[in-house]
Amino acid sequence: MKVRNDWTLAEVEALFALPFMDLMFAAQQVHRRFQVPNSVQISTLLSIKTGACPEDCAYCPQSVRYDTGLKVEELMEVDAVAARARAAKQSGATRFCMGAAYRSPKPNDLRKVIAMIREVKALGLETCATLGMVSAAQAVELKAAGLDYYNHNLDTSAAYYEKIISTRTYQDRLGTLRAVREAGMNVCCGGIVGMGEQPRDRAELLHTLATLAEHPESVPINQLVRVAGTPLADSAALDPFDFVRTIAVARILMPRAHVRLSAGRNDMSDELQALSFMAGANSIFYGEKLLTTGNPDTEHDQRLFQRLKIAAEPLKNAAAA
Ligand code: SAM
Ligand code: DTB
Ligand code: SF4
User: What is the DSSP letter of 154?
Assistant: First the structure.
């Protein structure tokens, strides 16, 4: 069992085609070889700039083009972000992710975000940001400020991407991922399932991720949150087993990555979440809100962890905590 970057699309599709139990068994074997069982990494999300985004991502409540009733909020003040990070740390999070509804950050915005990163880092938390497209120079600045992870999702296959977003290309997305990697940051990159894509699109997304020169350190698998007012509001519900399959295949293809059970947990039963952990998910977003939509109550998550005897993953660098 070794980490591979040369997966073929046929191999990925063959994994998806396995009987469910065989796929789960294979995923568990990889999980137990490369990851700590019964341990889940906890990230907290904060929307530091909300709505009025010029992009047209069909799933997103923050696009200026769709009337979703969202309250637009300017870039937050640094102190307010630091206070939220302190609270997140208190409640057990080890990573603090700051999300901004930008196509790409403007120089003034970046300066302020950099101040936030320094504050959050000083608290001993791992830092993550998702700010849209960044240039090589911006990625270097973010890294120098102490940014540990940059989140930038490919979201779906290259072919289906064109049906979901018209304001940027798959190549743009790959360019940002390259800039982030070259600046020496950890890459957080995954996608969304349940947008009406075909099984082949899910296979192509995971194939693209698994054949990058280095696998992303974090792979968020989001289930579409169907927000009223967005073009995808009436998408058909995904078969939950297909969601779990996506997690299991991601686990097998990228053994060292943290696979994150991301958006959509509010629509999932505890049993489906447990199945997702069984399939190899070992990270979640914790806290009542994702960016703009709901997430399970922290009490509920704590109870779920107790029932499953799952422990929160400790910070790697304990000295920083
Ligand atoms: N604007 C930046 C960008 O697009 O990279 C950063 C923020 S954006 C909201 C981050 C990610 O959230 C998207 O790439 C997408 O994967 C996810 N997302 C947005 N809306 C979602 C929804 N309704 N359901 C599931 N995931 C969603
Ligand atoms: C990711 O893959 N999922 C998070 C995070 N990265 C930034 C965002 C989910 C957003 C869900 C819709 C919302 O709350 O606005
Ligand atoms: Fe903007 Fe990001 Fe939402 Fe797309 S996903 S509309 S880029 S905030």
Answer: -
Q: What is the DSSP string of 63-104?
A: BTTS---PPPBPPPPHHHHHHHHHHHHHTT-SEEEEEE--SS
- Give the span between the Cα atoms of 98 and 261, in whole angstroms: 18
Q: Which residue has 């304990």 as its token pair? A: 318
The pLDDT tens digits of the residues spanning 180-237 come to 999 999 999 999 999 999 999 999 999 999 999 999 999 999 999 999 999 999 999 9
Shortest-distance atom of ligand 2 to CA 130: 7
CA distance 185 to 187: 6
Q: Are strands 126-130 and 218-223 parallel, antiparallel or unpaired?
A: unpaired
Measure Cα distances from 170 to 203, 204, 208 in Å.
Answer: 16, 13, 11
Q: Is 189 one of the catalytic residues?
A: no
Instruction: For residue 80, give both structure tokens.
Output: 């307010």
On the 0-12 / 13-18 / 19+ scale of CB atoms within 10 A, 290 is: buried
- Ligand 1 mean position to 60 CA, how many Å? 6
Residue 13 φ then ψ, to 5°: -65, -35
Kindly give the distance from the C-alpha atom of residue 3 to the centroid of ligand 1, in angstroms, as a whole number: 28
**In whole angstroms, what is the distance from residue 38 CA to residue 310 CA?**
5
**Model confidence over 276-300: pLDDT tens digits?**
999 999 999 998 899 999 999 999 9
Specify the amino acid at residue 113: V
Q: Which of 47, 49, 55 should be mutated for ligand 3, with most atoms under 8 A from CB?
A: 55
| Pairing status of strand 149-151 against strand 218-223 | unpaired
Which residue has the least CA distance to atom 21 on ligand 1? Answer: 60
